[in-house]
Hints:
heterodimer; A: 508 residues; mainly alpha; two-stranded antiparallel sheet; globular; B: 125 residues; Helix Hairpins; 5 helices
Amino acid sequence: xxxxxxxxxxxxxxxxxxxxxxxxxxxxxxxxxxxxxxxxxxxxxxxxxxxxxxxxxxxxxxxxxxxxxxxxxxxxxxxxxxxxxxxxxxxxxxxxxxxxxxxxxxxxxxxxxxxxxxxxxxxxxxxxxxxxxxxxxxxxxxxxxxxxxxxxxxxxxxxxxxxxxxxxxxxxxxxxxxxxxxxxxxxxxxxxxxxxxxxxxxxxxxxxxxxxxxxxxxxxxxxxxxxxxxxxxxxxxxxxxxxxxxxxxxxxxxxxxxxxxxxxxxxxxxxxxxxxxxxxxxxxxxxxxxxxxxxxxxxxxxxxxxxxxxxxxxxxxxxxxxxxxxxxxxxxxxxxxxxxxxxxxxxxxxxxxxxxxxxxxxxxxxxxxxxxxxxxxxxxxxxxxxxxxxxxxxxxxxxxxxxxxxxxxxxxxxxxxxxxxxxxxxxxxxxxxxxxxxxxxxxxxxxxxxxxxxxxxxxxxxxxxxxxxxxxxxxxxxxxxxxxxxxxxxxxxxxxxxxxxxxxxxxx
Amino acid sequence: xxxxxxxxxxxxxxxxxxxxxxxxxxxxxxxxxxxxxxxxxxxxxxxxxxxxxxxxxxxxxxxxxxxxxxxxxxxxxxxxxxxxxxxxxxxxxxxxxxxxxxxxxxxxxxxxxxxxxxxxxxxxx
Lengths: 508, 125
């Protein structure tokens, strides 16, 4: 049983999803998916403990040994990613019932749970697998269910909600282009190496090959260069790296609040994980950063992304859209950390994956509470809400402080690592820009605080009351975690540092 | 010249890929976008199948005897890319199905599947 933990982690939500469709009965389906999500979280914790204890775990699916069979390979980074993906999956689902009762048509609830579990399966599968094609399949499982989840935001007869359909459609087109790019890249790599197992592929890419009577490394061939280009563009699209983020704002704005909270906290983060795997495990950092200028490219794009997206966020009138643009900026911070290619930078990037998942998850859950009571996420409707829904708004403000990166919140830890990595390289303008962009975050967070606490609420909201405890508790678990991991960093930053060390050592 | 002709399959792949990609970007009709997306994906299937071909190799099925001449085959094409592509085809079908389902819903809500008209409707508050 213990031995089969890796595959159980994937199989449990995967099997539960069709069960949800068969059972249909709302309460039973909710109970089933809730149990499955928390069980998955428990398994992810057990896996992380085992990995920290005894190092990398491998699992041969069906007993077919790698590189012929599909292999699950769990190191510190993948266990860490699975930990927060399954954790947030469980907490957000606990939050869900009241929120979806308002935002999703009742006869579609069982579909929501089924798609949610499928999406979770896909995201966990990406993190666990050691096989490149298997990764593509999981990526598509998670993406397809994400498109469907977003489209659930449209309810018949409610005109404002129909934009969810267009948002889902655009996301589908962009996401499929990205996935197909990834598929092309995988194909070209397979063409040159004859293997799909990542570890095996890494080895073979460093072997020598004779082309046109000239001896060269496999990773010097043009095919591998093209493969790398396709893969990095495809993954950047999936992780919404500026300027490939166009699908994200609408998708996050018009999706049901629960879906936004889950996707914002996990989906783009897992794509970053794929980028890390590609750079550090498969092609090697020296190939990506020394032979090719991926580090410069990532740095320039992420810095522009941080400034442009944060500035755009300031001018939004819809808070969900504002947070979506802030997400694009945060992805910029993560990409910036990767571009330093140093221990501090990489630690900052990995720990920000975790911290930002908590912060954005918490903020979007607080938005879910607001939308439940107000039926809108417009800034105008939020006026004076600080007095009517004090608990919700307090959670929002703490999350907002995390976004800015105020000390004692988790956001501070990530920025600390990023800035010290920049200073270590002597790139003080970069460090300055990171600080400056925190001020931009301060501006957009302040706009909400001002509306909520310093303006009078409009007449029609006189009856608004605090959100139910069943929603506040999960929100506070995530928001509390951002403060907790701002003070106690040995889990987040400690594990992230170990993961970064492993990644950098893997590279020759 | 021989090299150019020898890469015949790859030229077809590139042609289809760019055709599909262009349709996705340039067409404003949602159905046409989905058609473009499908062509784009299918070109990749062809890429995979092409790379599995081994010169002089036969289908990887045992027994390896020609059914009339009884000649023994020694080389086989690589079956793995074709198997991979079966999976990718399933993914492609699912994507197309989901996209078409979304278009049905969009048509119900907006009464049109032209992107420009949809955006115009959304602009009016």
